[in-house]
Amino acid sequence: MSFLDYFKGKKTSTASVAKERLQIIVAHERGQRDQPDYLPKLQQELLEVIRKYVQISDDMVQVEVDRNESCSVLELNVTLPER
Amino acid sequence: MARIIVVTSGKGGVGKTTTSASISTGLAKRGHKTVVIDFDVGLRNLDLIMNCERRVVYDFVNVIQGEASLNQALIRDKRVDTLYILPASQTREKEALTKEGVEKVINELSETFDYIVCDSPAGIEHGALMALYYADEAVVVTNPEVSSVRDSDRILGILQSKSRRAEMGQDPVKEHLLLTRYNPDRVEKGEMLSVGDVEEILAIPLLGVIPESQVVLNASNQGLPVILEAESDAGQAYDDAVGRLLGEDREHRFMTAQKKGFFSRMFKGG
Question: Nearest-CA neighbor of B210 among B24, B7, B14?
Answer without folding.
Answer: B14
